[in-house]
Amino acid sequence: MIQNIKGMPDILPDEIGRWQFIEKKIRALMDTYAYREIRTPILEETALFVRSVGEHTDIVGKEMFTFTDQGETQMSLRPEGTASVMRSYIQHHMQMQSTFTKLYYMGPMFRRERPQKGRLRQFHQLGAEAIGLSDPLVDVEMIALLMSVCKTFELPGIHLELNSLGDAESRKNYRGVLQNYFSKHKPILSDGEKARLENNPLRLLDSKNPDLAPAIAEAPSILDHLTDPSKKYFDQVQQGLESIGIPFNINERIVRGLDYYSHTTFEVMVSGLGSQNTVGAGGRYDKLSSDLGAKETPAIGFAMGLERLLLSLEGKSLGETQPVRIEVIGLDEKAKSSAFQIGHALRESIPECTVNIQFESKSLKAALRHADKTQSNWACILGENEMNKNVVLVKNLKTSDQKEMQADQIARFICDTTVSPKLNKDKS
Ligand code: HAM
Questions:
Q1: Which of 34, 202, 331, 374 suits 256 as a labelling partner, its CA being 20 to 30 A distant?
Q2: pLDDT digits (tens, 9 = 90+) for 74-93
Q3: Taking Cα atoms as reference points, which of 169, 296, 298, 161 lies closest to residue 228?
Q4: Residues 279-307 pLDDT 10s
Q5: Atom 13 of ligand 1 has which residue's CA nearest to it?
Q6: How far does the centroid of ligand 1 lie from the alpha carbon of residue 302, in Å?
Q7: For a substitution probing ligand 1, which of 278, 284, 288 has the most ligand atoms within 8 Å of its CB?
């Protein structure tokens, strides 16, 4: 039997209610912050990610699903959304429409990582990107948005970690300092780490090599190598967070696994997720636009893993309110087409209801068992007896009360008896 690809699970109908619940709440929250949705393709030219996320990062170096299309263009399944959003922003000249553009997206991302709890090969991100302004308050608002998402879902043990990678000059200084420092530990570096020492020494700081852990703990801090303007910017971000009561921890090891960052970087952890406890993360990326060949445009954003969000909500009822559900049951071949017409009319009359027409003629007992399993509220039953009398037997499945009536009376009867659904006046 062909199975799904490892780390790329199906999301089954039983789970979909939870997804739709969080998606709906997230969209409402994004509206509150005046963000507009953007949908970019899941396939992009590989060069986009090489130039943005960075050639020497794990994501681009070993985690992308890449293929050559028709022997010509190298394409990759997107490992993240920021690069695509910036590509689209540039391509569609969005800077002409507004000096400040706030965009969000939700959708699948792909990374060939070793699957484990909270780490998948196809996973979903909510991402937000604010493009056009370099202002500490924009950074504060972005972090506040990520925290709002966490608070909306009352995630347990929310914890914000903050760092600054400074401007290009700060990082250039710090790079040299780190290269010097880690050169002294060369004998314990793996081959991969030796390569990083040359091309991306900041990434050594989140190496998982246990032999290197003591050296990492003692490594010089980027915060001691920030230029004055970078230091001032970072101070203002911290003051802004304090002014709206968002607590944070400074963590100078947050260097992030993507190359495009500068200045503010941040990660939000929650409890109960084990080793994959970072639910959302992001930072400022002022140089990405120019790395992609366009005019330099400051920007900042974050992305949140929706599987991780749902994992941390496990066991919690997500307040999915079941819509009123009506089962229309035709008990023999003759009743089938009447049942179909009645079901169709009910859908038009009560748009908020779920109406399931049971096409397969089976026993009344089996039909009601199905209605019970699907937590239906009403059954509209049409058997030989009802067909002869030209009525429908309408049964309230919660109270077991039942009543015969004409087909065109059902919608009003159900709406009068049930609190929530509204009758479509045009169709009743
Ligand atoms: P990232 O840190 O690579 O950042 O990913 C953000 C979040 O996506 C992670 O904190 C995690 O919740 C989730 N995530 C990442 N990889 C996986 C995986 N394999 N399985 C499940 N969840 C995962 C970015 O992607 C940046 N684009 C964020 C950003 C937006 N920076 C600026 N704007």
A1: 34
A2: 999 999 999 999 999 999 99
A3: 169
A4: 999 999 999 999 999 999 999 999 999 99
A5: 305
A6: 8
A7: 278
